[in-house]
Write a structure and sequence with these properties.
The chain has about 270 residues and is an alpha+beta fold. The chain folds into two domains: about 130 residues, Beta Polymerase, domain 2; about 100 residues, no CATH class. Helix content is about 50%, strand content about 15%.
């Protein structure tokens, strides 16, 4: 499997708010061949704070013996640590598990796969990314709706800006996906793509850059937030009803993903 590590250009790092830390040692500690690794979390979503962790996500390849032997394989590996004063965590799934998650209408793994903040890539990564649009369905709205409900409840308990931004981000991602078939996770971009995005979203993003767990600016009233979030849920419902996305992935993409997983073990 041909692969290489990409250190994104300084401009891309700067635009995403990523520290200029060498990520190669973190990836090397994974221990298994990586299919890909990208940056997810607040840096991908467009609202990192000065003290935000760096969330690395991806897929790896377990040895064949781990998959066909008697012992249950460790399909997900997690590494956490500090690099040059920056908190990082790397979470990767074995390719077979990752593809199964792709087929379960899991928008989260698709965002990782399609993240433009690539730090490690392979030919398999490119193939997976090319197949990703074919697994998108109208039922991915359920993923974003459920995520929004969870984050809104968390906001109600904590009153912090972070879960509020996550709530808005996933609702807008879901709306845009239902309307266009395009998966966009970057909140500042979504404010220009979704006309119903609250006008104060940019102010919230700007406030988040100051502190990871800061409060909501006083200019945004709680009643207004509640009304706007409820309205976005209604927009997502309507967008799902009107979406041209299919009910389920076509059989050819399932077969293509199956062949890719098998080929990754045998080539």
């Amino acid at each position: 499997m041909t692969d290489h590590v990409l250190q994104p250009a300084a401009e891309r790092l700067r635009e995403a708010g990523l520290p200029t830390t060498d990520l190669s040692p973190v990836l090397a500690e994974q221990g298994h061949p990586l299919v890909f690794a990208t940056v997810s979390g607040a840096h991908l979503y467009g609202f990192p704070s000065r003290d935000s962790d760096v969330d690395l996500r991806g897929a790896h390849l377990l040895p064949v013996a781990d998959l066909i032997g008697l012992r249950e394989p460790e399909e997900t590996r997690t590494q956490m640590g500090d690099r040059d004063g920056v908190e990082m965590d790397l979470v990767t799934h074995d390719l077979r598990k990752f593809v199964r998650l792709m087929l379960r209408r899991n928008g989260y793994v698709l965002e990782q796969l399609l993240s433009p903040l690539v730090v490690h890539t392979t030919a398999l990564h490119a193939e997976l990314a090319a197949l990703a649009p074919a697994v998108l369905t109208r039922h991915h709205a359920h993923h974003y709706r459920g995520f929004a409900v969870t984050q809104w409840r968390l906001f109600g308990k904590q009153g912090e800006l972070k879960p509020l931004l996550y709530t808005l981000r996933v609702l807008l991602t879901g709306i845009h996906l239902m309307r266009s078939g395009e998966l966009v996770a970057h909140l500042p971009s979504l404010t220009g793509l979704v006309g119903e995005a609250p006008a104060y979203t940019s102010e919230l993003v700007a406030a988040k850059t100051e502190a990871e767990h800061g409060p909501v600016p006083d200019v945004v009233a709680a009643a207004r937030l509640e009304a706007d979030v409820a309205a976005l849920h209604a927009v997502l419902d309507a967008a799902q009803d009107a979406s041209s996305l299919p009910e389920s992935p076509d059989a050819p993409v399932y077969d293509a993903l199956h062949d890719l997983v098998v080929r990754a073990r045998t080539d």
